[in-house]
Amino acid sequence: MILSAKQCSCQVEDKILLDQVDFEVEAGLRYAVIGPNGAGKSTLLKALCRLMTLSAGDCILSGKKMSAFSQRDLATWISYVSQTVFNTNGFTVHEFVLMGRYPHLSPFTSLRKTDRDKVDAALEMTGMQTFAQRRLDTLSGGERQKVMIAAAMVQEARIMLLDEPTAFLDPLQQDQVYALLETIRARTRVTLIEVTHDVNRAALSHDIILGLRQGRVVFCGTPEELMQPEVLYAIYGKHFTFARHPENNCQVVMPTGKSI
Amino acid sequence: MRKNPWLFFTLLITGFVAALVILPFVGIDLITPAQVFTAEENQIQHIFWELRVPRVLTGMLVGSVLAMAGMTFQALFRNALATPFTLGTASGASLGASVYIWAGWSISLLGISGQTLFAFLGAITALAFVYGFSRVKNGMSTNTMLLAGVAIGIFFSSLILLIQYMADQAHSLRILRWLMGGLEVVGFRQFLEVLPFMLLGAVVIYFYRWEMNLISTGEDLAAGRGVNVNRTKIVLLVTAGLMVGAVVAVAGPIGFVGLIVPHICRLLIGPDHRRLVIACVLLGGIFLSVCDALARLLIAPSELPVGIVTALLGGPFFLWVLLRKKIS
After folding, report:
1. How confident is the model over A189-231, as pLDDT tens digits?
2. Closest by alpha carbon to B205, among B81, B83, B75, B79?
3. What is the extent of the structural domain holding B235?
4. Could you tell me which of A43, A160, B60, B168 has the fewest CB atoms within 10 Å of its CB?
5. Highest-pLDDT range among A143-152, A167-176, B36-45
């Protein structure tokens, strides 16, 4: 077990965002976090990399309380790819990805060759090498997401958190990003924890799925266990229609044909 | 320029050296090298070494500090309109200096003049108010800090007006003239007062070059990469506040340098603070010393306050740069 959340609660003013969440993460697996809007998915991700302060409980990272890590040390363990559109501020792709090396850089020395090599390797793996000198604000949403992932890669953290990495992307770009994440996992053995609204994608591409509702964990299990009517109802409060995927015979959910 | 930063820095260094060498000869009366570098002692040598050279050096130093402070605030607040005076630091420093002038004191500590000390105190008080307010209200939210800075700046400016109203005519005029900004220094005292703050500040700011790059793209993103955002903000705000306090104490609140110099540098060589810090030091120095030379020449034999020249020259030039960039 590389990471665990123990009775983690998060509260902003009177609103409880996470309520006594328990969650264990095994190294090298791919996790999906699903749930309706406002269930606490993004909050859980932010709490796992200390972007949000817990009001109770603690996260344990490699046997050590997360609060004992400095921010820089934490970044060598956990990288975070946010969902929100950030301020590109005129940076080029290369400059932005290079910033991912921050936890490994010293303020007293200039860049080493290994830093530049790692940036080049990440750009190559994400297929963004030809865009290296392009400004980030001239890229499409999918390209920008790949740059974000490349920047997280050069951070060389053992866990990568992704908050809806395919939000706002068309189906082709969604496929590309998911394929890229699978390639990264296969090559680097990084543990992936992704927030998604896509139940089918969660079931087809992930090893373990965590279902949240109103800040509480209501499900944690395999894709087969997830694709049960009562489980999905417990997470979303809605009935789904099921079908078999023609390629792999896995259970998938179908959109309803009319508004209900 | 962005693809060829060496060309940019070669031009900047050439401009900086040229300004340093040429500008001391420029003034109401043009001085020639022959008049200065002569064996016989004369009045012109005194003017050159005691007035012109310290003035150019102080101008360069003040310009560098204002440009660096502006760049720092713009990165921390991710706001193109942030200036060294955004958080009320200049108003605080001005209030401190105004109180000192009004009281008519004449003190110094460890070679630092009372006016400089009071300006520091004012700048740090303003920063402490802004920081304390933001921390209590919203955990150091950027927007809260900006709003608090504007409110405290207005409040301190009102106090300066009150002091001017209560002061006698001589003190009131002295405060008013000081508030217009100027570089009328005699000897190297002011230059040497500001120099340690500038050097130390430049080192600290350069030390945080990666953090500024990351924070300028977003605080969550920066924290996710390992930046201790709150500590970085505090260190940089205090550093910039001290630098601005020292500069305002010597030269008054000179506007526009901290806004336009970082923008021009960013347009020419991009947003990477590894280069931007050095570019701001050089261009800030060139810009303010050239503006001061113009302030000496434009209505000779009188002089304009340099703050008026920076605004008159800087505003249209800035618009031209923005338009040119848009068109290209």
Report:
1. 999 999 999 999 999 999 999 999 999 999 999 999 999 999 9
2. B75
3. 5-327
4. B168
5. A143-152
Contact B198, B64 (CB under 8 A): yes
d(CA B146, CA B21): 40
Report residue A71's pLDDT band, with 50, 70 and 90 as the boundaries.
Answer: very high
Mean pLDDT of chain A: 91
What amino acid occupies position A258?
K
Which chain A residue is nearest to residue B274, measuring alpha carbons? A110
Which residues in chain B have Cβ-Cβ distances shorter than 8 Å to A79? 224-225
B242, two tokens: 């001290």
Q: Which residue is associated with the tokens 């630092």?
A: B112
Distances (CA, A) of A206 to A178, A216, B39, B310: 10, 21, 86, 60
Tell me how many domains chain B contains. Answer: 1
Domains of chain A plus CATH, in order, are: 1-77+157-176+184-260 (3.40.50.300), 86-156 (no CATH)
**Do B270 and A92 count as a contact with CB atoms less than 8 A apart?**
yes
Q: What are phi and psi of A82, to 5 degrees?
A: -80, 160
Enumerate the residues of chain B whose CB falls inside 8 A of the CB of residue A11: none
Predicted local confidence at residue A84, as pLDDT: 64
Check A105 against B210: CB less than 8 A apart: yes
| Residue A163 and residue A81 in contact, taking contact as beta carbons nearer than 8 Å | yes
In chain A, residues with a C-beta closer than 8 Å to the C-beta of B80 are none
Q: What residues have CB less than 8 Å from A212, skipping those under 6 apart?
A: A21, A33, A34, A35, A39, A40, A41, A44, A218, A235
Instruction: Calculate the alpha carbon distances from A88 to A13, A93, A134, A174, A210 in Å.
Output: 31, 10, 12, 22, 32
Residue whose tokens read 């046997």: A63
pLDDT digits (tens, 9 = 90+) for A15-55: 899 999 999 999 999 999 999 999 999 999 999 988 888 99
Cβ(B16)–Cβ(B40) below 8 Å: no
Instruction: Report the CATH number at residue B213.
Output: 1.10.3470.10
Nearest-CA distance A201 → chain B (Å): 26
Beta bridge partners of A195: A33, A163
Cβ atoms of B270 and B322 within 8 Å: the answer is no
Distance of CA B308 to the CA centre of its chain: 15
d(CA B216, CA B225): 13
Helices (H), chain B: 5-22, 33-36, 43-46, 53-77, 89-103, 114-138, 142-166, 169-179, 189-207, 209-215, 219-224, 229-251, 257-269, 273-297, 306-327
